[in-house]
Amino acid sequence: MVVPKPEVNLPWVEKYRPKKLDELISHDDIIKTINRFMDQNQLPHLLFYGPPGTGKTSTILACAKQIYQPSQFKSMVLELNASDDRGINIVRTQILNFASTKTIFKSGYKLIILDEADAMTNDAQNALRRIIEKFTDNVRFCMICNYLSKIIPALQSRCTRFRFGPLDAKQIMPRLDHVIQEEKVEATDDGKAALIELAGGDMRKVLNVLQSAASAFPVVNEDAVYSCCGHPLKNDIFEVLKWLLNDPFSSAYQKIQELKIRKGLALQDILTDVHKFLHKIDLPHKTITELLIKISDIEYRLAGGTSEKLQVSALVSAFVLARHKLEVN
Predict the structure, then answer these.
(1) From CA 114, how far away is CA 252, in angstroms rounded?
(2) Where in this chain does the record put each AAA+ ATPase domain (predicted)?
């Protein structure tokens, strides 16, 4: 008798991972196509690519659970992740041995899942080409990656490619509500909106931040979500913009520095949010264009490792100059 594993201590990302293709919340066209392949017993080699948290791994694991019985799963599915060594030696030994051997008394094909395949070396990818061709009658490959350009063209041409785009709010919200209900979390509408906005279409990030916020705060609201991510609150960004647009140089610089230290904020995050709000301010197009160019230069310099104090000065001076030009005109 197999005792089911307790799911009490599982992260919510794993606890609520879809078990069947029907449970997936997005990419209906891709799921219909794969279902058709499986119904006709003509599953090709697959290549899933797209941003993280969009359901690539969940889709192929749901397929595998649909194709194989639980007792067959270990003998018929080989899953290798980026954490495993997947150099040329592993391709020539472990993958080759698994692909070349047939299981007694079991019909059908095996499945090899190469998660984060864009981390494989070019030598390993080249060694994989011949294995895919030679053992097609016995095994199917599914490669999963974030960046299609890092997969060599020879492998791309041997697979049927599917792009998994970021999920939109309409797709995320029902699953988010389901998890909130199951876990008895008290969440507000602005908290849910903040989760979806910060995740940027990444379902994994939505659930991870929700779990963190639910553990740290009694109510998951907007402030709780932003605090868990270490992200500037909207009120803080409004204050920063107010200082930039109204205060003299020394006062604005001092206030932004104090806010950064008090809240532990990075200038990079402040810049990202100031950029979003800047589009909503009623300023002449020429002024906004100049400010955006200067903000992009500051971001570039930050990426190069320059002092944040210098770049805060550059940010304040950009707005002071813009205000001065407006006053002259």
Answers:
(1) 51
(2) 42-186
